[in-house]
Amino acid sequence: MTPESTTPDPHRHDVAQHPFTAVEARVLGTLMEKARTVPDSYPLTLNALVTGCNQKSSREPVMQLPDAAVIEALDDLRQLNLVFETSGGRVARYEHNFLRVMGVPEQSAVLLGMLVLRGPQTAGELRLNTERWYKFLDIASVDAFLEEMQARSADKGGPLVVKLPRAPGAREQRWAHLLCGPVDLSAAQVMASAPGTSATEDDVIRLTRRVATLEETVATLQDQLENLCEQLGLSQPGQD
Predict the structure, then answer these.
(1) Which domains, and CATH codes, for the chain?
(2) What's this model's pTM, rounded to 2 decimal places?
């Protein structure tokens, strides 16, 4: 596995000029997530990557990407040095190179990955949702990294996140990533004020921990199935 590095890549990707597609962002976010939450299964096979991209939980929006769409995104990301294909074993596996190419520290990459996968969130929600990726000391430290990314200079590629206007009835403002280009503020405002989108902090904590446990169980089973099929020389279910 290639160690994570903050050393800027000589071919650093400028999202201001070439934003990612929604599929490319989902592929990157999924690789970043699984590298931290299920390291024993990482780098990911194509099948595991597609499954992660299409998860019903911890994803906003939920997608149903076919293999072909993920393969196309992988090809484009490899040309940008953002994804590597590793050799060895019976199947190809993929890993990300996000920190080096984007030139951001670990904490910023974690926040960007979570925003890519779950959509706009408050600093408090981000701190809670990234617990399995990275343990931030407090909400103030989350805010500091977000503000640093928002103030990113043009010579470094410009801002990577934006603080959204406060939604009606909301106590905290939410943050959104800019990896796919400018945010549609009107659409974000509608989503934030839609009925049923709010929850108490206790509800969020309880649901987050439950989802995290379920995701870890599923990922472990997926890894065991892949290893078993590889040892027996069998194709995985659904790949025939």
Answers:
(1) 105-205 (1.10.10.10)
(2) 0.78
